[in-house]
Amino acid sequence: MFFLTPALDLKLLLLINQQWRCSLFDLIMPLLSSMTVLMVSLAVAMAFAVYRKGFRQMIFVIVLLAAMGLSNATTDIVKNQVKRVRPLNALPGVHNQAHGPWERTPDDFVQTKETGTSYPSGHAANTMCLALLACLIWPALGRWPLLLPLLVGYSRIYLGKHYPTDVIAGWLLGVVVGIGVWLVWRHGLSRLLRRS
What's the pTM? Predict the structure, then answer.
């Protein structure tokens, strides 16, 4: 890994993951982190957009999905270089939940992996890319879509999957990919489609 965990990063992780816990968040945070829930919600939103504004909206859906795919591929490239171990595999006392009940790493826990895929957060990058493009494609939505990456990013820390810097790096990467896709769309692809 290229860097050690900064003290503030660790402090924020422990605050969110261990001190700010409650039974309501224990129920909600896994849902916010679920890619299945995200994809189903996205499918419903897109079906509604097509129903309200016609099949032209499918072009925007394809742009969104392609952008998320690009964002995900980019995070994978960075993860493979940085190889930061996730908090649940690196630290004692971390509350975590994968596919079953909540667990907590023991107080005498010793790091179990040499490498990992914590930095940057793919969930944070993908949802930021999606939200930013949704704001640009459908300005009438205002800035409401930006709540999605904030909530998902928080959930990733709460679940013990990522450090705060993983989430911030994911958000930044999502912004870069989202703006890049938007510029390509606005100055290239949309003009080609209008000509055909």
Answer: 0.90
